[in-house]
Amino acid sequence: MHTSCPVCSFSGMHLSKKCSVFKVVLSALLIVALLQLIYLSFLSKFHGNQQRYRYSELFGGSGGKKNGHPEKNSRKERLRFSLSTGGIFDNSGQYRVYKNLIKSDFTTNHKPGSIPSSHVLALATHTTINNLHHLESLVERWHNPLSVAIFAHGQDVKFATALVYALSFFCPQIQSLVDFHLVCLSGEMASFPEQDREHFAGLEDCASVFSRLETHRDKYKNYAISGNVSYPNNLLRNVARGGTESSYILVIDIDMMPSADLHQQFEAMILGRETASDEVFVLPAFEIRHARKMPGNKAELVQLYQVGEVRPFYEELCSRCQAPTNYSRWVNSHVRGSEPLEVGYTLTWVDPWEPFYIGPHTVPLYDENFKQYGFNRISQACELQVAGYKFSVLSSAFLVHRGFKIQGEFHAKKDEENKRNRVLFRSFKEGLKTKYPSSNRRC
Question: Which ranges of the sequence are coiled-coil (predicted)?
C-alpha cells in the first residue's frame, strides 16, 4: 500500500501558499497601477480644463460682468477698444501707433492732468519682443510708473499684443505701473488674439509669460529685424515719452538699469530746489559684465569699476561719445553713497557727447527721421545744446547696461546705417539754425 510522503505534502502546501501570496501582491500592484493611471488621466484632464479656462479668461468671452470677473473683463474690453481704433499713423505715414494699447492701473485711476505731485518722475523705454524679457528686472528695480513702446513686425504684431496683455493680466506690478504702446508698419494692424489657443494655452501666471518671452530673446541681433524693416528708435522714444504725464522723464534703452532708489532720491532733490525748465540732469552710464550682479548704489558700482568689472558705456565702440561725462571726476566724488542726491557738477556740451539724462517733459522731441543705428540720440543732445539747456551731472545716480558692448556683436549693416545717418545729421544741424535763429550755440 502506497503512503504519501509527509514532507512532499508539506512542500506542496507551502508552494500553494506562496503562489496565493504572489497572486495577491500582483493583483494589488495592478490595482495601484490602474489607480495611478486613472489619477494621471484625471490630472491631465483637470490641467487641460484649467488651461482652457485660463485661455478663456485671457482671450475669450465678451466682457461685462456676466463671466464673474468684472475687473478682468474690463481690462479685456479696454484692449479691444484700443485695437478697434486702428491706431494712428506717425508723421511719416510709415508706421501705425497704438498709444496706450494697455494702460496701467496708475494711469487708469488718474484722469489726464491729475497725476499727484509726488510722482514727478517717470521712466520711458522702448524695445522689440526680442528684449521685452528685461522688463521683469526693470520693474523690480524701478517700482514706479513706466511707459514702454514696443515695435513689432509681421507675426510678432499679434504675438506682442497677446504677450503684453498677458503681462498686464498676470503680473501685479506690471498691471499697476506699466503702460504699453505698440508700433508697427502702417500696412499692418494689431488684432485681439482669439484664435491662437494652442500658441498661448501655456500662459497661466507671470513666470510663464516671461518664460515665453525668454524663448524670443535671440530671435534676431540688435536692429537686424526680418524683412529689412527699420527699427524706428526715435519714434518709439517719443511714443514712450508721450505716454507719461510726470513733470520729469528718464528715457533709457530697456536693457539698462537705473541705480536703486533713483525715483525717491530724485524727487526729494527736485522738490527741495528751485526748478529750471532749461536744465537736464545727466546720469553717468556704465556697462557691466554679463555674469555680474547689477550694483544698486554708487559704492557698489565704484567697487566693481575699480576691478574692471564695470566700465564706461560704449568704451570700446565710441569712448568719445561718453568721455565728456568726466568719469574720473564722478567716480572719485561722493563715493560713500549716504549723501542725498544732488548736482555734482555742470558741463558744457561738446561733440559727440550723447548723455542719458532726466529732463523736464518740455525738452525737444527726438527727431524721428533717425532710424536704426547711429546719431539717433546725439541729434537730440545736439538740439538741447542749441536750445540753451544746461547739463548737470547727478552726484550718485547712474545707469548700467547689461553686458560689455564689443566690436563684432552688431548686425551686418551697422556701418552702412551709421554712414547714412551721418549725412542726415549734417542736414539736421543746419535745420537747427533755422529753428533757433537767436541762439549763438552750435553743435
Answer: none
**Helix, coil or strand: residue 438:** coil
How many Å apart are CA 126 and CA 181, to the nearest integer?
Answer: 9
Mention every residue, 6+ apart, whose C-beta is less than 8 A from residue 248: 120, 121, 122, 266, 270, 358, 359, 360, 361
Give the CA distances from residue 380 to residues 264, 354, 398, 430, 443, in Å, rounded to whole numbers and listed in that order: 27, 8, 20, 14, 11
pLDDT of residue 112: 61
Q: What is the DSSP letter of 303?
A: H
Question: Which residue(s) pair with 258 in the sheet?
Answer: 399
3-state secondary structure of 186: coil
CB 385 within 8 A of CB 441: yes
pTM of the model as a whole: 0.83
Write out pLDDT tens, residues 55-74.
Answer: 555 655 444 344 445 555 68
- How far is residue 199's CA from residue 202's CA, in Å, rounded to a whole number? 8
Quick one: which H or E segment has residue 23?
helix 6-59
Beta bridge partners of 287: 311, 401
Write out the E strands in 153-268: 178-185, 248-253, 256-258
